[in-house]
């Protein structure tokens, strides 16, 4: 097993990476910064995939596309060099969709490099009955997980590579098939795939699971966008969204004459830039009459607002509306 003083710790973002730096484990940290549940994740060659991810994130206000691309490429180089040099790599991830997609991405790279990383992947923590992720843990608590790290078996790397390929296909049939089965050695992947499929519109109302929890929270009387985010997170079995991504979804529902959400003054919900998230959080929001009909299943979100969304490599548009029936666990093709 890895000597902590020489290891490269790879984890889900800056928060956990910073806490790892405060542990006594030593080594270097590499945050895997990308929200792969949002935007295009197509089956392109690696550099083109990173370029498209950078363009998408830049378009959402996360910075200059060239700077984001350079960050992605530097991240990939650092991991690839560790694999090539035989530097011990330990992956720190949790059970939710955000983390599991990052983990699959990394394991696919490890499979390609014929590397053997170790992993610490958890869905619970002693004394934390409502555990949501590694970011909640102190440096001392993270250290208690260190003895439980295990090398990722070759078969699990092969499986992760295959699952990652299915996620990135142009249509979601393979993704849906993978979501029907448990993946040995990857205990949280199936739940993550099912949750990813729930970002497709539902047959009855056209809402994604994220949109539905948002509307339910607002219908229950929460006063602001921030309160809606907190209430919606409580409805998620494994919360994965950051507040800015939730606010972005809310803003999409709040545009146009057929909007489902509006401000307390009856105006459209303003478009969101990440820098505006603090002000957006305090925005009073309410359902419109159309929002109430959609939430009741009497109208369809896609018919009212249209749609232009990526779920992995599947581009969902008004001309190609793939839907997911979460109750029956089946796809509905366009």
User: How would you classify the helix and strand content by structural class?
Assistant: alpha/beta
Strand content: 5-15%
Average pLDDT confidence is 95
| Unreliable stretches covering 5 or more consecutive residues | none
Q: What is the spatial order of strands in the main beta sheet?
A: 2-1-3-4-5
Instruction: Give the total of domains.
Output: 2
Helix content, binned percent = 40-55%
What features would you describe in this structure?
This protein is of the alpha/beta class and 334 residues long. It has two domains: 4-197, Dna Topoisomerase Vi A Subunit, Chain: A, domain 2; 209-306, no CATH class. 43% of the residues lie in helices and 12% in strands. The protein is built from 14 helices and eleven strands. The chain has helices spanning 14-21, 46-59, 65-85, 97-113, 139-145, 154-167, 173-178, 189-197, 209-219, 225-234, 243-253, 277-281, 289-295, 301-305, and strands at residues 8-11, 28-31, 89-94, 118-122, 150-151, 261-263, 285-287, 308-311, 314-317, 323-325, 330-332. A five-stranded mixed beta sheet has the order 2-1-3-4-5, sandwiched between helices. Helix 2 runs antiparallel to helix 3, helix 4 (97-113) packs across helix 8 (189-197) and helix 9 (209-219) crosses helix 10. It is globular, with a radius of gyration of 20 Å. The termini are far apart. The mean pLDDT is 95.
């Amino acid at each position: 097993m890895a000597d902590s003083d020489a290891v490269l710790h790879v984890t889900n973002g800056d928060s956990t990476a910073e806490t790892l730096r405060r542990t006594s484990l030593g080594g270097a940290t590499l945050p895997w910064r990308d929200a792969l549940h949002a935007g295009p994740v197509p089956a392109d060659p690696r550099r083109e995939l990173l370029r498209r991810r950078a363009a998408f994130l830049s378009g959402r206000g996360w910075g200059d596309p060239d700077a984001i691309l350079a960050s992605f490429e530097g991240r990939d180089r650092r991991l690839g060099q560790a694999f090539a040099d035989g530097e011990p790599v330990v992956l720190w991830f949790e059970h939710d969709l955000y983390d599991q997609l990052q983990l699959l991405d990394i394991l696919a790279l490890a499979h390609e490099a014929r590397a053997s990383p170790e992993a610490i992947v958890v869905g619970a923590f002693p004394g934390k009955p409502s555990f949501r992720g590694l970011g909640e843990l102190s440096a001392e608590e993270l250290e208690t997980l260190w003895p439980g790290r295990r090398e990722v078996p070759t078969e699990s790397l092969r499986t992760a590579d295959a699952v990652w390929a299915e996620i990135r296909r142009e249509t979601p049939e393979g993704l849906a098939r993978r979501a029907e089965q448990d993946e040995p050695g990857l205990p949280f992947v199936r739940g993550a795939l099912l949750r990813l499929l729930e970002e497709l519109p539902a047959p009855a109302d056209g809402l994604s699971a994220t949109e539905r929890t948002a509307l339910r929270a607002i219908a229950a009387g929460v006063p602001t966008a921030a309160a809606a985010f907190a209430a919606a997170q409580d409805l998620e079995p494994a919360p994965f969204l950051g507040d800015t991504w939730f606010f972005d979804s809310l803003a999409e529902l709040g545009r146009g004459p057929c909007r489902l959400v509006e401000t307390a003054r009856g105006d459209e919900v303003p478009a969101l830039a990440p820098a505006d998230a603090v002000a957006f959080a305090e925005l009073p929001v309410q359902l419109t009459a159309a929002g109430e009909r959609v939430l009741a299943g009497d109208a369809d979100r896609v018919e009212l607002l249209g749609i232009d969304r990526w779920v992995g490599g599947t581009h969902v548009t008004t001309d190609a509306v793939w839907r997911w029936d979460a109750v029956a666990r089946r796809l509905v093709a366009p």
